[in-house]
Design brief:
By secondary structure, the protein is an alpha/beta fold. It has 17 helices and eleven strands. The strands form three sheets. A six-stranded parallel β-sheet has the order 3-2-1-4-5-6, with helices on both faces. The protein has a three-stranded antiparallel β-sheet with strand order 7-8-9. Strands 10-11 form a two-stranded antiparallel ribbon. Helix 1 (24-34) crosses helix 6. This is Dehydratase.
């Protein structure tokens, strides 16, 4: 008999318990669920701290919560009660995989849970490596990024809007689960993986040489506004106020940019006067202000549509600055197979994404996020084999809503 396997669900058959809030761990759990794992998010009765996080619908439902919990199942339980804690630890033991950013609770610590499931995989996200607390914005403040973000004449720190370390940490956490599953398949052993959010930020700063350049060269990265460090790139404004980001990474890009803006002779004269070699991307970066002054006039004489059409005929890397509303209405969303139309209860109808990678040409699709506690009875029945009488007894004891 031929067994049909869905290539977009490589983790089918894997069960995962998630206790989480905010971004990193919910993103990890959703990523694993969209790849086929059965992920049950367990929340306290009434919801965790992120259940009503903005943005909200007019009726007060969290669009944010629905966005990070697609494809999961939801169970609520009183985790302060002995009966509730017993239910949770039994579910973790049944699944064999536990994903959380709720640390410091002895009853679901790794040593305690291993007594129920010796080959348990437990992935924990924390704030700082020293055990301290931290969120994306506080971690970011302590690494250095806000002091090299923003305009060159700015003295104040500038936070970026994207919670980069939460997102990166969530993907590292999902990867940790997958690699631990492979390890368990090969050895029969579980693993306890800890991922401090701060370490994700530090590793990224190190990998991108932001820390290394200080250690080796004694220099600290400068603020450069919208320029691109080490090569040529910056923003330009058209005659109608339209804004574009333009990047010339290679010599071909740079030649095309000078040809487009009819500045080839001026750029050559500038190179002679400065003794510069603009075939070197480092020198293009060093003299970026002088070069930008030459290019800016062409942009200022053309409308956004004219600029887009002209840039589209070159090898130059570019994009027009757009709002989220403009992006949502564009073909990159409306005609993109990554997006699937969802009828999300309590939220409405919208285009939603699954995992942003095509597997054998197909994107793993999104599914709706559950309402809080939607799957409590089903999970207790399916995973633990509890009948209606025992579930009712837990409810009567206050362990379930």
């Amino acid at each position: 008999m031929t067994v049909t396997v869905d290539p977009t669900r490589p983790l089918a058959g894997v069960r995962i318990v998630e206790i989480s809030s905010f971004v990193a761990v919910p993103l990890a759990g959703m990523t694993l669920a969209q790849l086929g794992a059965e992920v049950v998010r367990i929340d306290p009765i009434g919801g965790a701290a992120d259940y009503h996080r903005w943005p909200l619908t007019d009726a007060g439902e969290s669009i944010y919560w629905a966005g990070l919990n697609k494809n999961k199942r939801s169970l609520t339980v009183d985790m302060r009660s002995d009966a509730g804690q017993d239910v949770v630890t039994r579910l973790i033991a049944d699944s064999g995989v536990f994903l959380t950013n709720v640390t410091g609770r002895p009853w679901h610590s790794h040593p305690t849970l291993r007594q129920r499931r010796p080959d348990l995989i437990q992935v924990e996200v924390s704030g700082r490596a020293d055990g301290g607390t931290g969120v994306d914005y506080t971690v970011n403040a302590g690494i250095g990024f806000p002091l090299v973000t923003g305009a060159p004449d700015s003295a104040a720190p500038v936070n970026h809007v994207l919670p980069a370390w939460d997102v990166s940490c969530g993907l590292y956490a999902a990867l940790a689960v997958v690699t631990a599953l492979r390890h368990r398949d090969a050895t029969g052993d579980g693993q306890h993986v800890t991922i401090p959010l701060e370490n994700v930020a530090l590793a990224t700063a190190s990998n991108l040489s932001l820390l290394t350049e200080v250690m080796v060269g004694g220099t600290t990265r400068e603020r450069i506004g919208n320029a691109v460090y080490g090569t040529y790139g910056r923003d330009f404004t058209g005659s109608d106020g339209s804004a574009f980001m333009v990047v010339a990474l290679t010599n071909r890009h740079f030649r095309d940019l000078t040809a487009l803006t009819d500045t080839a002779e001026d750029v050559a004269a500038l190179a002679d006067s400065l003794g510069a070699d603009f075939t070197d991307e480092g020198q293009r970066y060093t003299h970026r202000e002088a070069l930008s002054a030459l290019f800016a006039g062409w942009f200022a004489r053309h409308t956004g549509d004219q600029i887009a059409a002209a840039l589209g005929r070159t090898s130059v890397l570019w994009e027009r600055y757009r709002t989220f509303a403009e992006a949502a209405a564009s073909e990159r969303v409306t005609a993109n197979p990554l997006f699937t139309t969802l009828e999300q209860p309590r939220i409405g109808r919208f285009a939603a994404t699954g995992v942003p990678m095509a597997i054998d040409g197909c994107y793993p699709p999104p599914d709706v996020a559950p309402a809080l506690g939607d799957d409590t009875e089903t999970v207790l029945s399916d995973w633990l084999g509890l009948d209606a009488r025992r579930i009712d007894a837990l409810r009567a004891a206050g362990a379930l809503a």
